[in-house]
Amino acid sequence: MQRSIFILIIYLLIIPAVNAKQLAITFDDAPRKADGYFDSPTRAKVLIESLEQHKIGKVAFFSTTQSLDKEGLERMRRYDKAGHIIGNHTHSHPNFLKTELSAYQADFLRAHQLLQQFDNFKPYFRFPYLREGETVEKRGGMRSLLQENNYQNAYITLNNYDWYIEELFQSAVKDGRPVDMERLSSFYVDVLMASINYYDAMASKYLGHSPKHVILLHEMDITALFIGDLAQRLRQEGWKIIPLEEAYKDPIATYQLSQPIKYNPGRIGEIALAKGQKKSLWHDTLDESYLQKRFNQEVLLMSAH
Ligand SMILES: [Zn+2]
User: Residue 85 C-alpha to ligand 1 middle, in angstroms?
Assistant: First the structure.
């Protein structure tokens, strides 16, 4: 009897850990333009401190190396020294739909060289706009180049428009409109959680379980301000934040869609598409006018009419 109670207690202790939904956090476009709410050293400082305070651990910064001017380089060095992964996001952020394969490959290689200076550089490649090549030739060309250089395609599963929330916030600040920071935090967290839960439900539908996720965020002021609030809400809702290396051990890391596509919704969207889902591969929150309307109402407290 005592033994079975003991086993039951152990079981109850283990189950929540086993069932925790998991995600890794990544920031694209680093070092991204900073001269609005925060200047760039402040953004880096607040972001690094928030990650530490909230015990988020190591995250990944995907760098576009053309932004490595004196200031940009300093910022990236701070992220590197803080132990975060530095990944490749090309040199000049080309749109693969409008770029020849050879030019795209050269841009990738230029970034690859420039990123060697960082101690925590890892061969992870995040395609700008998630566009991996709309023809078999272009897609195959990049797949081969990544393989030759021992790269992992740093796909994402949790898509969102956090960059547009930053745009709305920065233009409100610039226009001198009063922004209620608590409301902005709630708006940011609510919108992101809605997209996270949406793609997790889509994953469960097609995979039968919740995989190790990767969220796409950007290196921006709202990220520095609210990443801690987001982490807190994620944990309240049963999520565990994991390192990116861990996320890419999931079986979906080797998944390859057979047909090339123009616009990529993220890996879960790709799997859904392959299984016949044609609509709603992008969540409602991935829409600029939707976000603007809610931002005006919920953050700027403007009436709907
Ligand atoms: Zn980008």
Answer: 16
CA of 45 relative to ligand 1 center, distance in Å = 22
Helix 181-207 with 162-174: angle, nearest 10 deg? 170
Query: Which pLDDT tens digit goes with each residue over 128-179?
Result: 999 999 999 999 999 999 999 999 999 999 999 999 999 999 999 999 999 9
Q: How far is the CA of 211 from the centre of ligand 1 (A)?
A: 24
Homologous superfamily assigned to 21-298: Glycoside hydrolase/deacetylase (3.20.20.370)
Distance 107 CA to ligand 1 centre (A): 14
Question: What DSSP string runs through 29-82?
Answer: EESP--BSSSBHHHHHHHHHHHHHHTT----EEEE-GGG-SHHHHHHHHHHHHT
Calculate how far, in angstroms, residue 302's C-alpha sits from the geometric centre of ligand 1.
31
Q: Which tokens go with 199? A: 């793609």
Ligand 1 center from residue 13 Cα (angstroms) = 40
Distance 65 CA to ligand 1 centre (A): 12
Could you state, in order of their start, the residue ranges of all structural domains in the chain? 21-298
Alpha-carbon separation of residue 77 from 30, 44, 97, 174 (angstroms): 11, 10, 32, 29
